[in-house]
Design brief:
The structure holds two protein chains of two kinds.
Chain A (H helix, E strand, L loop, with lengths): L19 E12 L2 E12 L3 E5 L6 H8 L5 E8 L2 E2 L5 H7 L1 E4 L11 H8 L6 H14 L1 H5 L10 H13 L5 E5 L7 H18 L2 E5 L3 H7 L2 E6 L2 E7 H6 L1 H7 L3
Helix pairs in contact in A: 3-6
Chain B lengths: L1 H31 L6 H19 L3 H28 L4 H22 L14 E4 L2 E4 H23 L1 H11 L1 H6 L4 H24 L9 H14 L5 H21 L4 H19 L2 H4 L7
Antiparallel strand pairs in B: 1-2
The chains are: A alpha/beta, B mainly alpha.
Bound molecules: adenosine-5'-triphosphate (ATP) and magnesium ion (MG).
């Protein structure tokens, strides 16, 4: 049974702006006894937008799954706001203030938009609070409000993404891991979505760790970035620095 | 004409019972993707529980029903937690084998405990018959139909209106996403299995008043439930209900028009239906039991 769920956590955090919020140290993990990650080190500071880029199959999504407890961390450590969360699963992490939007479409297709959002606050029993929060989300995504009774399976790709992001915001997380939020979105919609993420950071103080296929726009958006290749961090630095790096440009940005 | 109407009445009553039974199987498959080959034995187990409650505690079946539901839920929960969950991630045949084994174990234990002599639960209304014009329906069967429809409605409301029910459907639709929003998937699976078993127990209790039962009847029920779920197109309660009525009426028709061997013919008809259904709607298997509203 869900026990205690922190009240709205966004604003008050023990971590001051700029302090390390999430840290992965020497994370080794994989599937079925086969390692994909060979010792990932990364950190995210409070209020940052950090992008993770890298070739297909390099282990980007696997990093998120390891952090979020969807797969076992065989070696290494994940620390969130000073707490060792290495062994925690999604339920505990949600309670701690971290949400995740996975790579593949994860709406519940045969439930409507409203019910999908409700489930974003599955861990909260107070119905009135859920309702208020859904209204907040509808203010943020007016297009979802118009479709509240529509089955999520019939939404367009952009609307689905908005619904997933809205659902991840339901519990008022302080940090969100987003795996390729722009996948399937047109360049214009991608720009809009990035803009919205930046606004969420500026107004609600949410910290973002993003995986992006489109390395250039992801690094432009981000404060800092990590390049992952074959299960290891190969480059890291500010978005600008990575965009300017010869090697990174040659490998990912088409020269 | 008279026989036809009586057949339809009997068929609808049988169909209501079948619908309840099949919905339990469909629920378990829809949420967990497990075909529970012990479903019929669960039903018979429920029938024996009702019989015991009547025989030793003097409890009327309708009073026992909430108890049966609670017992069924607990039993199903424990069974799935202890023997099904550990093999769920392994080969997909494993749950099938496990439930098949479970079916023999239950039938065996029931034989040891109660012998193979058929039992029938008595209720205050056991001997009463409703006569309208020229048609006759035993009260116990009427009670079975009404209770089955009430329970089906409650199940539907649970799945579509309550938070736990929606979470259950959500888990069936996208397991990964369910975990992401903090749903405990293992617990949901066990609850679904428990709920399906509770439905089987309730169906068994209601059935136990209408006719004699013995430990080896379960397999046939499993088979019929399976036919109905496939025929009904899976998941939706309305589809299951229609298919159950269809099977019920065919069976009642065979026993109404063909004297003496009618009842066994009805049973044989279920086998024929499996073949026909699978030939006409082979896709019915793969779509079996997707839980929809
Ligand atoms: N569930 C799984 N079981 C086994 N292997 C997996 C599983 N998921 C991913 N892998 C393997 O792990 C490696 C890394 O996959 P991952 O999804 O982390 O890559 P990615 O960097 O996110 O790629 P993409 O950019 O295509 O999303 C791949 O070789 C993939 O085949
Ligand atoms: Mg990926």
């Amino acid at each position: 049974m869900p026990t205690s769920v922190p009240e709205t956590h966004t604003k008050e955090s023990s971590i001051a702006p700029g302090e390390v919020m999430l840290e992965a140290a020497g994370v080794i993990a994989g599937y079925g006894g086969f390692d994909i990650l060979h010792g990932i080190d990364l950190e995210v500071r409070r209020g940052e937008i950090v992008s993770v880029v890298g070739p297909n199959g390099s282990g980007k999504s696997t990093v998120f799954k390891a952090i979020y407890g969807l797969i076992n961390v065989r070696q290494g450590m994940v620390v969130f706001e000073g707490e060792n969360v290495t062994a925690m699963g999604p339920q505990e992490l949600l309670r701690t203030g971290m949400a995740m939007v996975p790579q593949l479409s994860t709406v519940f297709p045969s439930l409507n938009v409203y019910e999908n959002l409700e489930l974003g606050m599955y861990l909260v029993r107070d119905k009135a609070r859920v309702k208020t929060r859904i209204d907040d989300i509808f203010d943020l995504f007016p297009r979802l409000a118009d479709r509240r009774a529509q089955y999520a399976g019939t939404l367009s790709g952009g609307e689905r993404r908005a619904l997933e992001i809205g659902r991840s915001l339901m519990l008022n997380p302080r940090m969100i891991l987003m795996d390729e939020p722009s996948v399937g979105l047109s360049p214009i919609l991608t720009k809009e979505m990035f803009q919205q993420l930046r606004e969420l950071r500026d107004t609600a103080g949410i910290t973002f760790l993003l995986i992006e296929q489109n390395a250039r726009s992801a690094l432009e958006l981000a404060d800092r970035g990590y390049v992952i290749q074959r299960g290891l961090v190969s480059h890291t630095g500010t978005g600008e620095a990575l965009l300017g790096d010869e090697e990174v440009r040659r490998a990912f940005l088409g020269g | 004409m008279h026989t036809l109407i009586q057949v339809i009445i009997d068929g609808v009553i049988l169909g209501g019972f079948y619908a309840l039974m099949a919905q339990g199987l469909s629920l378990i498959f829809g949420i967990m993707r497990v075909i529970n080959l012990a479903h019929g034995e669960f039903l018979i187990l429920g029938a024996y529980m009702a019989w015991v409650a009547q025989e030793y505690l003097g409890l009327d079946v309708l009073m026992t029903l909430p108890l049966l539901i609670a017992l069924g839920f607990g039993f199903g929960w424990v069974v799935s937690r202890v023997v099904i969950m550990p093999v769920l991630e392994r080969h997909e045949l494993m749950p099938l084998l496990i439930t098949f084994g479970l079916a023999s174990v239950i039938a065996g234990l029931l034989t040891v405990t109660f012998t193979t002599t058929p039992k029938v639960t008595t209720a205050a209304y056991s001997d009463s018959v409703i006569s309208l014009l020229d048609y006759r329906v035993s009260v116990s069967k009427a009670v079975m139909l009404v209770a089955a429809l009430v329970l089906l409605t409650m199940l539907t409301l649970f799945l579509n209106r309550t938070k736990k029910g929606k979470a259950m459907k959500a888990t069936a639709q996208n397991r990964e996403a369910a975990r992401i929003v903090g749903i405990n998937v293992t617990r949901m699976y066990c609850s679904a299995f428990g709920l399906g078993t509770a439905v089987a127990f309730a169906a068994g209790g209601l059935f136990s008043v209408t006719q004699g039962f013995h430990p080896f009847m379960g397999g046939l029920f499993t088979l019929k439930a399976f036919v109905i779920v496939v025929l009904g197109g899976g998941g939706r309660v309305s589809g299951t209900l229609a298919a159950a009525m269809f099977v019920g009426i065919i069976e009642a028709g065979l026993s109404g028009y063909v004297s003496n061997i009618g009842t066994s013919l009805g049973t044989a008809a279920a086998f024929v239906l499996v073949v026909v259904v699978l030939a006409l709607r082979p896709e019915g298997i793969s779509r079996l039991g997707g839980v929809r509203a």
